[in-house]
Amino acid sequence: MSVVFKMEGFGELIKQMDELGQEIGKAKTDAIWRKAMAYAMEPVLDDAKSFVPKDTGETASRIYMKVHRPMARDKQGRRYMGEEYMARVTASPIRSDSVLNYTVNKKGKLRATWSNKSPAPVAQEFGNAHNPAHPFLRPALELNIPRVESRLGWSVWQAIQQLAQKRKKG
Questions:
Q1: Which of 41, 116, 153, 168 could connect to 87 by a Cys-Cys bridge, CB 3.0–4.6 Å?
Q2: What sections of 25-132 are H helices per DSSP?
């Protein structure tokens, strides 16, 4: 089951951001995109935390959002369409009793790994042989698609308007 949604009217917005990027620089336009995506995905994060089953409450405290550039594994996926940034809302498998271990690999680099991680968020979202699924991430995204679209557009547009006003003053 996949969620597909089409956003209209963003072509003009992206074109203006590209033009603006040439004027103000890549670092500032990247910051605008990151802030806009984080603002847009806040309702998904909030709903995911409210939809998660409250057994011990530990899973709800481990749900977080991360905005980043696509990694190599993202670019290899069939759903990758050249996005500059991605926003992920996910649950960490790290628990309160997890331990951070440090090892040195063959090349002499220090590596940090967690032990005693819990697959509980995955098992709650998709179910397993012993427990039925109690999805919380997917419904949070599906219910908020229109809000994410409008918040993303509004946030980027506000940033463009603020920069235009600064340009008029300066």
A1: 41
A2: 26-51, 58-61, 72-76, 120-126
Bridge partners of residue 103, in order along the sequence:
111
- What is d(CA 116, CA 136) in angstroms, rounded to the nearest whole number? 23
List for the chain the helix, strand, coil content (%; round to 5). Answer: 55, 15, 35
pLDDT digits (tens, 9 = 90+) for 44-81: 999 999 998 887 777 888 888 999 888 888 888 887 77
Cβ–Cβ < 8 Å for 138, 125: yes
pTM score: 0.76
* pLDDT at 35 > cutoff 90: yes
Contact yes or no for 31/21 (Cβ under 8 A): no
Residue 39 is which amino acid? Y
Token pair recorded at residue 47? 């709903």
Among 40, 69, 1, 19, which residue's Cα sits nearest to residue 146? 40
Mean of the pLDDT values across residues 150-162?
88
> For position 7, what pLDDT does the model report?
60
